[in-house]
Design goal:
The structure holds two protein chains of two kinds. By secondary structure, chain A is α+β, with helices and mostly antiparallel strands. Chain A contains ten helices and 20 strands. In chain A, a hairpin with a 7-residue loop joins strand 17 and strand 18. Chain B has three domains: 243 residues, MetI-like fold; 100 residues, no CATH class; 248 residues, MetI-like fold, CATH 1.10.3720.10. In chain B, helix 21 runs antiparallel to helix 24. Classes of the chains: A alpha+beta, B alpha+beta. Chain A: Keywords: ATP-binding, Cell inner membrane, Cell membrane, Membrane, Nucleotide-binding, Translocase, Transport. Chain A: One of its GO terms (molecular function) is ATP binding. Chain A: InterPro entries: AAA+_ATPase, ABC_SmlMolc_Importer, ABC_transporter-like_ATP-bd, ABC_transporter-like_CS, AminoethylPonate_ABC_PhnT2, Mo/tungstate-bd_C_term_dom, P-loop_NTPase. Chain A: This is Iron(III) transport system ATP-binding protein.
């Protein structure tokens, strides 16, 4: 839990005014199962926040608590200065989009979008104008008189989005909105949603299990696991400075090697000593030394490390997989007790250094990219 | 993990209810209350009736006799003491019904109403009641009567609770034999029907038989007639003046044979429907695998087909068993001296006015019915899981020999079903069987017969329409609330349970329970007794479960998040119900209403206790005319029900199609 406390709550500077959404000490229990454990979070006005985590981590539970669809067991939710902790959904201010679209199948697209605009003192003309405007906004102005089943999945999800923002809610909630779509449509729509959100400036919370989606869309990512928040930060921050081994492994790829701590910036992997990022483990502690595959630096076969060379390791290249823009190499070192090191070398580097399987080369594990983590807990005994 | 313990102290967040939440919960409670009042309370009334006993307590009465001069010289004596000395009343004599009377003079062997002796009588407690003539007396004050008046003194029983009625029931072979009869006949009928229906369903699903559509319609036809109609047809065929009487070789159709044949007829569509579904969902890949392993067709049948359809077979078995054991109309018409439980209830209540004993038989009948129902529910739950598996439907390939056998088999069954219906129609059109075979419409002059006349026919249609409209509304709205309301788990669990209950309650039991509950003058709902309203209420409740399940299935197919979206858009839930839920579920709504209509037209069992002269029904008229010996008019009325239901089905089909194309355009791309 040390890592969590040391993690920065906000990546950028905290503005003076109150956050738009403030979640404090939220717990959610289903019988004996703890779905949310003491979760606290602040979301600024206009921010796009992603809840990211594996299935069952509590991200959807948290979203549904914010919406009031499934009330939390303990804790408060304050939205726009108002305590909404125990209010039903109909008395909160949000629009929501679900993975299943949840479009009303027997109503036309126009009527679906107009659904929330009715009974609110708007005239028929006003509603028509607003619906047309929304249809334009999502780029489907020609489709207004069709039924949902006549549209593609991506188009249906855009209609669901238009319906959710029709009443200009203060908060937009997106529950895995892209998960049911084809890969290509997903990438395209990802961009569109982000654009629309920026244009409207609406505070948005999106739930996803897709790290790429979170990294490309969010202003800030909330990484969750087992009902707790592991880390909150900007995408680059979360990627570069993961707060825990879980975050490191969940976002992007990470080599994980068993190691012993020697001093505040040195550790031993297998038979060799390496310098690593500063940490506060005691000497002698068993940790996991982690490095991303694309941070491993290759040297040519003719490279001979001099006496002062640090963090260099002699390895044999095992399998090499060509993955388009880079080569994924499986490196074996006799000194790592059989542990394999995975490295992504650019096509350029492989050509320049003429790397091939069964070659023996030196690779460097740069000090600032080699991070020591506490091993992941088995069960819940560290909680 | 000891997670819960780490929860900080304090109170859980208590949800504030939205207006919709409050509205939905209130309505759910209203409909649950409806079910409690129309089902739970009557059943409770019936149950308590079966345990209410009456007996004479001789210790409650005291007598004193004078000498011939009217002087009371001897001591007063208790009736019980007198009986101990004389032994006039045995154990059995002291058991009584609610209006039992015991003449006091029996305790005085040398009593003569001409003697000049005087008699005194009194109770030893305030509960003691006796009659002098028809005047009711109670209390401990002495009354002095001359011998001519004393002749008219009768002791009244005291009421109590206990197993007395059950003791009587099980110690009277004439009554308790029915248990064995009912179980045996139901078991044999079940084995017969399920076997025959399986063959039929198998032929339709696994061969390249021609006219499959026609065979399917024929198999479903018996559902459109009251269960007593095949009984009438059998009387014409094999009865005392039957045209094929010789075929029975001296056996009488009135009794188990008639009940068996008739039961096969009226339960066939139910078994066929379940088995057909079970066979239709089987996986073709299993057959391909068996084929490639060179398994013999016989072995494939026993190792692939039967195990695949096992839930269907079990379910059909219990459904048919339940239908036969609870059926009243058929054994009433053709059972003769062969007593079964459902008819016993009727005989006890209508024939002997012994309501307590009727209640006892009802309780006895309730046990196997509830048992069969429970097993069927468990099995059905399993079959749903099997349905959701991904399988490739089996496509039969033509095979001459097999297809010919299938054709012959299905034709025989088809002739049996159509034959029985045709006999009824033929009998209805004949002047006077078997003496004058010329055709006439005389038998349709229902107004000249006992049974309610044409009015009863129109009453039935009225009941059918009212049941369809009211029932569909109540059932669907109730199902919607219980499926889509937020939270309130306990209330919803209770509702689901009560909604399943009606299926386990035989119609006869329900009807009798209604008498006990609604005919009680102390009940404020007493006003609906004897009206069309109670018939509608009773029929809706009787057929609630299947309708409820149909509605729930349709609602489960709706996106779970519609309600969430509607709430986030600040729209009332009822707007969603009206504009989305009802239109999308329209096909299911129509299915529920036709189901209720057809059943309201054919049901006899529950309503037989509840109709009044003004609200006689067609199905009851069939029963009563048959009872009165007007068998031909009974057949005619039965066929009227058939044609009405067939027409209703056709209208239902056309309306469904019309509505689908007009309002369900969204279903088609």
């Amino acid at each position: 839990m040390n890592a969590l406390k040391s993690a920065p709550v906000l990546a950028h500077e905290v503005p003076a005014k109150d956050p738009y959404l403030e979640i404090s000490d939220l717990w959610k229990l289903y019988g004996d199962f703890v779905a949310l454990r003491d979760v606290s979070l602040k979301v600024e006005e206009g921010e796009f926040v992603c809840f990211l985590g594996p299935s069952g981590c509590g991200k959807t539970t948290l979203l549904r608590a914010i919406a009031g669809l499934d009330l939390q067991t303990r804790g408060t939710v304050i939205q726009n200065g108002q305590d909404v902790s125990n209010l039903p959904p109909s008395r909160r201010d949000f629009g929501i989009v679900f993975q299943s679209y949840a479009l009303f199948p027997n109503l036309t697209i126009r009527k679906n979008i107009a659904y929330g605009l009715e009974n609110a003192g708007r005239s028929k003309e006003e509603i028509t104008v607003r619906v047309t405007e929304l249809l334009d906004m999502v780029g489907l102005s020609e489709q207004g008189n069709k039924y949902p089943a006549q549209l593609s999945g991506g188009q249906q999800q855009r209609i669901a989005l238009a319906r959710a923002i029709a009443t200009s809610p203060g908060l937009l909630l997106l529950d895995e909105p892209l998960s049911a779509l084809d890969a290509k449509v997903r990438v395209h729509l990802r961009h569109e949603i982000k654009e629309l959100q920026r244009k409207l400036g609406v505070t948005t919370v999106m739930v996803t299990h897709d790290q790429e989606e979170a990294l490309s869309m969010a202003d800030r990512i909330v990484v969750m696991n087992h009902g707790v928040i592991e880390q909150v930060g900007a995408p680059t921050e979360v990627y570069k400075n993961p707060a825990s081994l879980f975050v490191a492994g969940f976002i992007g790829e990470m080599n994980q090697l068993e190691a012993q701590i020697l001093s505040e910036n040195r550790l031993r992997i297998g038979k060799h000593e390496f310098e690593c990022r500063d940490h506060d483990f005691d000497p002698g502690t068993t940790v996991v030394a982690a490095i991303r595959p694309d941070d491993v630096v290759p040297h040519g076969s003719d490279f001979v490390p001099d006496a002062g060379a640090k963090n260099c390791e002699l390895v044999r290249i095992g399998d090499m997989e060509f993955l388009g823009s880079f080569w994924r190499c499986h490196l074996i070192s006799d000194d790592f007790h059989g542990a394999e090191l995975i490295a992504d070398f650019s096509v350029n580097a492989v050509r320049r250094l003429s790397l091939a399987t069964r070659q023996e080369i030196h690779v460097e594990l740069p000090r600032e990219n080699l991070i020591a983590f506490a091993p992941e807990a088995q069960g819940g005994d560290d909680d | 993990m000891t997670d819960a313990a780490t929860l900080p102290p304090g109170r859980d967040v208590k949800p504030r209810l939205s207006r919709d939440d409050v509205m939905m919960r209130s309505w759910m409670i209203v409909i649950a209350l409806y079910l409690v009042v129309t089902l739970v309370f009557p059943l409770y009334a019936m149950l308590s009736k079966s345990f209410s006993t009456y007996h004479f307590d001789l210790g409650q009465f005291e007598f004193q006799v004078s000498d011939d001069d009217g002087v009371f010289a001897t001591d007063p004596v208790l009736a019980s003491t007198l009986n101990d000395q004389l032994g006039v009343f045995g154990e059995a004599d002291l058991r009584a019904g609610s209006d039992g009377r015991l003449p006091a003079t029996k305790l005085f062997p040398d009593f003569s109403f001409r003697s000049s002796k005087m008699y005194r009588v009194r109770g030893t407690s305030d509960e003691a009641v006796y009659l002098v003539g028809s005047t009711r007396h109670s209390g401990t004050a002495w009354q002095e009567l001359d011998s001519n008046t004393f002749r008219r003194v009768q002791m009244r029983p005291v009421s109590g609770t206990g197993f007395g009625n059950f003791v009587t029931y099980f110690s009277t072979p004439a009554l308790s034999n029915s248990i064995k009869n009912s179980l045996v006949i139901s078991t044999i009928a079940t084995v017969l029907t399920v076997t025959l229906a399986f063959g039929f369903a198998y032929a339709l699903n696994r061969s390249c038989l021609r006219f499959k559509g026609a065979f399917r319609i024929i198999a479903m036809a018996p559902i459109l007639v009251p269960s007593l109609l095949p009984g009438i047809a059998l009387v014409y065929l094999f009865g005392n003046q039957g045209m094929l009487k010789e075929l029975l070789m001296g056996q009488s159709i009135y009794g188990p044979i008639g009940i068996l044949i008739g039961s096969v007829f009226f339960t066939f569509p139910h078994a066929f429907l379940i088995l057909s579904t079970a066979l239709a969902i089987s996986d073709a890949r299993l057959y391909e695998a068996a084929d490639s392993l060179k398994t013999s067709p016989w072995k494939t049948f026993w190792t692939v087909t039967i195990p695949g359809a096992r839930y269907g077979i079990i379910s059909a078995t219990f459904v048919v068993f339940n239908l036969v054991i609870t059926d009243f109309g058929l054994p009433k018409v053709i059972g003769g001296q062969f007593n079964v439980l459902a008819v016993d209830i009727y005989k006890q209540v209508i024939g002997q006015q012994n309501f307590e004993m009727g209640a006892v038989v009802s309780v006895v009948l309730l046990i196997p019915a509830v048992f069969a129902f429970a097993i069927d529910r468990i099995v059905q739950r399993r079959q749903v899981a099997q349905l959701s598996a991904r399988s490739v439907p089996y496509e039969p390939k033509p095979q001459k020999g097999r297809d010919r056998v299938a054709m012959i088999y299905c034709s025989v069954i088809g002739v049996f079903i159509i034959g029985l219906l045709a006999i009824c129609q033929y009998a209805a059109l004949i002047k006077f069987w078997p003496y004058d075979l010329s055709l006439s419409l005389n038998n349709y002059q229902f107004d000249l017969m006992d049974g309610g006349g044409w009015g009863s026919y129109f009453n039935s249609i009225k009941l059918g329409l009212l049941t369809a409209i009211v029932g569909t509304g109540v059932v669907f709205f109730g199902a919607y609330l219980v499926e889509k309301a937020n939270g309130f788990e306990m209330g919803r669990g209770f509702f689901q349970m009560v909604a399943m209950l009606p299926m386990a309650v035989p119609g006869m039991v329900l009807g009798l329970a209604y008498i006990f509950f609604f005919n009680n003058p102390a009940n404020p709902l007493n006003a609906i007794y004897g009206t069309m309203a109670i018939l509608v209420v009773c029929t809706v409740t009787h057929f609630y479960t299947v309708s409820h399940l149909t509605a729930v299935t349709a609602l489960k197919q709706m996106d779970r998040e519609f309600e969430s979206v509607s709430a986030s858009l600040k729209q009332p839930t009822m707007k969603l119900f009206r504009r989305v839920t009802v239109p999308v579920c329209l096909p299911a709504l129509l299915d529920i209403s036709i189901y209720l209509f057809v059943n309201a037209m054919t049901t006899v069992s529950a309503v037989v206790f509840l109709y009044s002269p003004k609200t006689a029904l067609a199905s009851i008229a069939v029963l009563n005319m048959d009872d009165a010996g007007d068998i031909a008019p009974a057949a005619a009325m039965g066929m009227m029900i058939f044609y009405t239901n067939a027409a209703a089905r056709i209208i239902h089909l056309l309306v469904s199609r019309g509505l689908l194309t007009r309002t369900q355009a969204w279903r088609f791309r």
